[in-house]
Design goal:
556 residues; alpha/beta; Rossmann fold; 2 domains; 6-stranded antiparallel sheet; 17 helices; 54% helix; elongated
């Protein structure tokens, strides 16, 4: 509920702090005192558009803050939490408008787009009257009103889920059908490509092996010549090969180490080198014996590698990516070849989903038909008590068509006739703001048992009525205040007397400057205000007693 309203430098308001409570709160005052200013200011915190004209003359900017208690408002708490704007069961909406016309919006201290403020505001406050926040004018709210009144919400959720399941299957079917219509040309291409890759039979890791073998065969002559030359230098040919020279050097040093033991280490190293040279020469001989010149194998390798790289260039990929491409193309080919059987299976699934949807939607439609009559009758009875004796409201159900809709088989629309002999019209076509406010009040009374918007504001719902009808309006507003927080702007003493709280709005002039102020009334102050509202230039003792009588007559 709305717990506090702070307004600074807005229109005629210099600074205003207003604490609000549960139940029915009455706002009254002389014409032109500024009652509409409070509603306009609150509307800005709920996302209404603004211009620099609302900034108090001489001020740099206007600022409005509205504090809400969120106890029991799970949907609002979830909305805030999803956007990381939550704050321990409270919510502060703030709006600033500069003298240049720049506007800023905040939720719990965080800057937000105006649309976010509007989305949240629609869940917190509903203003009934000639103002913007009239959710009952929206068809989706009218549908929700009927379904909430009839207890349809679980069934509505099932219908919604069934419709979305059908729509998903339908979308998948259309996408597959589109693929099928283009698949003949694609199939020919895929078959040809898969045949080329199958014929190539390139295995994972094969390319690296082929490159290595090709490198050896392509350089076989050079490898053979270099290896043979190395064997000759090491241990063949004349007496000047490395092994012969090393043995001669080693023999000389071995004779000398008997004379000087310091040559022992050098002899050991030369003996080890001689062993390594003999082993190296032996391995090179085996390598030369095993190395073959195979022009045919080399030619095959070159053809194989050329085929691999040519196909890779054709597909614009690296050669080692060909096995992965082959697997992917094969899967696509198999999918397209199975499209006919998949389409047939999907057609059957779509038919079953369509039948399941209509089974649920038809059940919902039948219940809506019965509930629509009950709801229309209940609201019409309330309208009669609000001074519109010939008025009636009807809940019209208009078929959507055969395709499943998330909201059922029909659209729901509230249609009303405010006077005898007038045709029923959609609720948003009602011309009179006063009539619309009273019709909205009747609807809210009937639907008060449902969960809904926690704060309801009725702006002069008593326009054009008086006496007993005004008293009935007040009774109904007080009754509604037992379930919701109700704020009522009124000129009728019979309505004002019904409030749990009463606030007087007045204009004050100080030092040549006019400003609007709000004062909570209690005791004799309230008696005097209700007496003023009863009329007359002079407040007499009789007028005061009449005011006291109105207050004593309020049902506790």
């Amino acid at each position: 509920m709305l717990s506090h309203l702070h307004i600074r430098n807005f229109a005629l308001v210099e600074s205003l702090e207003l604490d609000l409570y549960t139940g029915m709160s009455v706002l009254s005052g002389e014409t032109g005192a500024g009652k509409s200013i409070l509603l306009d200011a609150l509307g800005l915190t709920l996302g209404d558009r603004a211009d620099s004209g609302v900034v108090r003359h001489g001020a740099e900017r206007a600022e409005i803050s509205a504090s809400f208690q969120l106890g029991g408002l799970d949907a609002v708490a979830s909305w805030l939490s999803e956007r990381e704007l939550d704050m321990d069961g409270e919510c502060l909406l703030r709006r600033t408008i500069s003298a240049e016309g720049r506007s800023k919006a905040f939720i719990n201290g965080q800057p937000v787009p105006l649309q976010s403020l509007r989305e949240l505001g629609e869940q917190l406050v509903d203003i009934h009257g000639q103002h913007a926040h009239q959710s009952l004018l929206r068809k989706e709210v009218q549908r929700q009103l009927l379904d909430g009144y009839a207890g349809h919400l679980p069934l509505v959720a099932q219908v919604n889920q069934a419709a979305r399941h059908w729509q998903k299957l339908k979308q998948d079917y259309q996408e597959l059908s589109q693929q099928a219509s283009e698949r003949d040309a694609r199939l020919d291409m895929l078959r040809f490509q898969c045949q080329e890759l199958d014929a190539l039979q390139l295995q994972d890791g094969e390319l690296a092996q082929l490159d290595e073998e090709h490198g050896v065969l392509a350089n076989a002559n050079h490898l053979l010549e270099a290896s043979q030359q190395a064997v000759t230098l090491l241990d063949e040919g004349d007496e000047h090969n490395i092994n012969s020279l090393l043995q001669r050097c080693l023999g000389d040093l071995q004779e000398l180490r008997g004379i000087d033991q310091r040559l022992e280490s050098s002899c050991g190293m030369l003996e080890s080198a001689a062993i390594q040279i003999n082993e190296a020469a032996s391995e090179l001989r085996h390598y030369v014996d095993a190395l073959e010149l195979d022009p045919q194998r080399l030619d095959w390798l070159e053809q194989r590698l050329a085929a691999i790289h040519t196909l890779a260039r054709k597909h614009r990929i690296e050669a080692d990516e060909l096995p992965t491409l082959q697997q992917r193309l094969q899967q696509e080919l198999e999918s397209l070849e199975q499209a006919d059987s998949r389409l047939a299976g999907m057609e059957q699934a779509i038919g079953e989903a369509h039948e399941h949807y209509h089974k649920l939607a038809d059940k919902l439609s039948a219940s809506r038909q019965k509930a629509a009559k009950r709801l229309g009758k209940a609201i019409s009875e309330q309208i009669h008590q609000l001074g519109m004796g010939g008025g009636r409201l009807e809940v019209a159900l208009t078929p959507n068509g055969d395709d499943p809709s998330p909201h059922g088989n029909e659209q729901v629309e509230l249609r009303v006739s405010a006077n005898p002999g007038q045709p029923l019209k959609p609720l948003n076509k009602v011309a009179s703001g006063g009539e619309l406010s009273r019709i909205s009040l009747a609807i809210q009374i009937v639907s008060a048992s449902q969960e809904g918007i926690p704060t309801l504001i009725f702006d002069e719902v008593d326009v054009g009525v008086g006496g007993g009808v005004a008293e009935m309006v007040g009774n109904l507003l007080r009754q509604l205040g037992g379930n919701r927080q109700v704020l009522c702007v009124t000129h009728q003493p019979q309505v004002a007397a019904q409030g749990h709280q009463h606030y007087q709005i007045s204009k004050e002039t100080r030092n040549g400057t006019t400003s609007t102020a709000v004062s909570p009334l209690d005791g004799e102050q309230r008696v005097e205000e209700i007496a003023r509202m009863s009329g007359g230039v002079t407040i007499t003792e009789q007028t005061l007693e009449h005011a006291r009588e109105l207050l004593r007559g309020v049902r506790k």
